[in-house]
């Protein structure tokens, strides 16, 4: 069996998928956004693609599959989602309809589908590159400004007044004008979404779709309040504090949201807010949880009586195996995405051993490199690293993550100001 993995060249999960493939006896074929003029620089025989050049990239994948037939496909991250759907369609294997994949990575299209399905969503509308907002009657405060084509809370800002809204829009437009953002070429770089702020607790849901049937793996609580002005996610912990009935309501909304977009097969990562008015859908992405965060999920495989990773389960599912008997472990588990406190150059990190010695903590992984220029949200595109913990209860896990984080010290040198002459 062979699975096609579409990802950026810097995707954290590629090694995890490689390890899972070795355990399952599944061969991997990668399609990554690398320079096609270099002769296999990473020595992984990957197909060189450009996610924004769908026709030529699809031809390259189909050509490669003639000599290396593919049985399943997985997109890692938002950027490859549409190309993955097109590849599945062209190769005649299980996947998502391309139109549904496109809606899953476009906040406005997704919300329109949710509304048609009768699901609660915040009020919202698009704003073009130079469209003024002063006095727009559609705006009700507080509101939230979001880039249409970015993810991970990047560029998301709350505004409570007209002046704050004006500053937030200007800041997001400046972010969208940056070279690194323009290089993504999602086709959505010039569009901003304005939507109502939804009070309440926020949750992330991980699962998988098989021929349109949604099977949840976990509901993650986000114990830190996400009320703005920026929306930096820090801790995910499962199982959720929600009661069984409340969890079922959330999962029913996720299933309906995925169906409203038209998603059929593969991983699902969804986000929602819950308050006394209901479950408000924020997104349903046709890809797994991002980066190293997948390590927080561990499953029991009755066929081998061994623990397996999320990547193990998703790979087997992609090639058509029945994974319905793989169940998440019973212990509570959590991850902290270590926030960046200030803009500047990372000089050193102290306290990693002390942070890792906290009871229930399973690992501390610093992914930022010494000498790297860091910036916090809303401009940030990464974290300092990750802390993982497992324990008897979610509260034990959250306490361990906070204790571990408190033992870390990051020396960040302020950037040298540039004086124009």
Give the key terms:
421 residues; alpha+beta; Rossmann fold; Dna Ligase, domain 1; D-amino Acid Aminotransferase, Chain A, domain 1; 4 domains; 4-stranded parallel β-sheet; 22 strands; 29% strand
Strand order of the largest sheet: 3-2-1-4
| Number of DSSP strand runs | 22
The amount of helix comes to 25-40%
Task: Detail the poorly predicted runs.
Answer: 35-43
Distance between the termini: 62 Å
Provide the gyration radius in Å: 21 Å
- How big a fraction of the residues is strand? 25-35%
Looking at CATH, which topology of the largest domain would you report?
D-amino Acid Aminotransferase, Chain A, domain 1
Total of DSSP H or I helical runs spanning 4+ residues: 11
The 3D shape can be described as: globular
CATH homologous superfamily annotation of the largest domain: ATP-grasp fold, B domain
Largest sheet: 4 strands, parallel
CATH C-level class of the largest domain: Alpha Beta
Would you tell me the overall average pLDDT?
92
Counting structural domains, the number is 4
User: Structural class per helix/strand content?
Assistant: alpha+beta
Query: Which CATH-level-2 architecture of the largest domain?
Result: 2-Layer Sandwich
